[in-house]
Amino acid sequence: MGAHETTGIIKRRSCEDFRAGVTLCNLLDLETQGPSYTWHGTRGGWIVMSRLDRTFCNDAFLEHWSQVSSIYLPRLSSDHHLLLLSSSMNTSTSPRPFRFQGMWLLHSNFKDFVRNVWCRPCVSSPMSILTVKLKDLKRELKVWNWQVFGELKLNISKASEKVLSIQERLTN
Q1: Per-residue pLDDT tens digits of the chain, which is 172 residues long
Q2: Residue 101 and residue 13: Cα distance in Å, rounded?
Q3: DSSP type of residue 98
Q4: Domain with CATH 3.60.10.10 in the chain
Q5: E strand or H helix at 69
Q6: Does 3.40.50.150 match the CATH number of domain 3-94?
Q7: How many Cα atoms within 13 Å fall on the side-chain side of residue 52?
Q8: Is 92 helix (H, G, I), strand (E, B) or coil?
């Protein structure tokens, strides 16, 4: 057998061993967003591309972590894509807590919006004015955020699709 044939047998055996290990450990290959091929190189003057980089987990992981996503990040200095795994144990059905968004500060109308809400007349005792104003501001900021920035998850999803499209164009 020539060196090329031996290398092919060794690689095939390694792949079979890897698949057997994945099966033995009951691992699941998570669907990952991003380009179809995560590695590229040249072999014998030919460009070779393959999906080598993967994210695996088992059922116990998925039971513990309710929300799991995986995405390939752009290649930087390696011939492989980085993998980003995101997971959350948040299974609560209660309303999400109010969170201040840093992007609000960059919006040209934000300060005027807050000033207008804050300066509204408030019929309340002096001790509860601050509480009432903060509750009003919170409610109004949620509406304003939706009107100005839209659904953030949808915007992030669209941006991720654009990144994927750019990555695929760069790969071709």
Answers
A1: 444 444 455 577 888 888 888 888 888 888 888 888 888 888 888 888 888 888 888 888 877 776 788 888 887 778 888 888 888 775 566 677 888 888 899 999 999 999 999 998 888 787 788 888 898 899 888 888 888 887 777 788 788 888 888 887 877 6
A2: 52
A3: P
A4: 3-94
A5: strand 67-72
A6: no
A7: 13
A8: coil
CB 17 within 8 A of CB 147: no
Q: What Cα–Cα distance (Å) separates residue 81 from each residue in 24, 29, 91, 100, 157?
A: 27, 16, 31, 33, 19
The DSSP H or E segment spanning 133 is helix 129-149
The tokens of 74 are what? Answer: 């752009």
Cβ atoms 89, 64 nearer than 8 A: yes
Instruction: Judge contact between 70 and 83, C-beta under 8 A.
Output: yes
Give the global pTM: 0.46
The token pair that represents 51 in the structure block: 């999906």
Q: Which helix (H) or strand (E) holds 170?
A: helix 152-171
Integer angstrom CA distances of residue 147 from 92, 142, 151, 152, 163: 26, 9, 9, 11, 25
